[in-house]
Amino acid sequence: MPDFTASGFTLTEPPLLSRAAVDRAEHLRSDPDALRAGWADALLLRVDRRGQTRISDGDLAFDDATSLGAEPVPGAVFLGLRGGRHVWAVRVSAMTGELGDLRAMGHRLDETDAGLLTTAVALLSWHDNAGFSAIDGAPTEPTMSGWSRISTSTGHEEFPRTDPAVICLVHDGGDRVLLARQPSWPPRMFSVLAGFVEAGESLETCVVREIREEVGVDVSDVRYLGSQPWPFPRSVMLGFAAVADPAAAFTFTDGEIAEAHWFTREQVRRALGAGDWASATRQSSDAELLLPGSISIARVMVESWAGQD
Length: 309
Prior knowledge:
By secondary structure, the protein is of the alpha+beta class. The protein contains seven helices and 16 strands. The protein starts with 31 loop residues before the first helix and ends with a helix.
């Protein structure tokens, strides 16, 4: 990873959802004969509309794909290979048993299963909302084993959407970091700033604009750190660091931020040591600062900055 010394730090480890080691086997997506042959011992991941799937002992609980039929069924999406076996996912309305989702259990999954569930959640969410062509309004049908959809009117092909969003850790070049809280978050929950990239905008320009819009602060020395898929529902988070003057006054002009503060490295280290904001213990504690959970790139960004001497 590049050493952006001007930013003062780099990511000390990949974000959890960027660890994916999935063999996507793209060459199989358009090979119906190979997909039918692989279906016989394929694995199946059922995912509900809340992004939940069945789990067993903290791991993903796969079913046999043949439980749906003797060959690939309409609506199933091909995710890739796991241990040489084909893996498919389907949307279901309800499930029984112990359930989990990426936010709650992503940190417990290995690289392959984390990647499979991330891909399944993103791809199925796209299909949920892509039933009609954005070009001609006609109904669409899935093709390429779930990796595209075709207009039934014109044959126009559409592909899964991924919306780029920047997420930026703003620091003062020294011992303080800028963290903010959205109005919907409980008190004491803070994170780094983020926003979606607009049409015709570079990533670096988006960082400058979003931070100015959200807290009224101008930043410089914008440097790329790393990225992470964020399938809630279809984003990729592009992580940056930037420097700002802690003496600059805050202004909250777009309504997305309720409050923002500069925190010292020691304050952040104490908060990191206490866990994350999803912990029931921390929610009921009197901690001055609650930080994002481990599956968010925000967590590793804050950890990497706080770990500097």
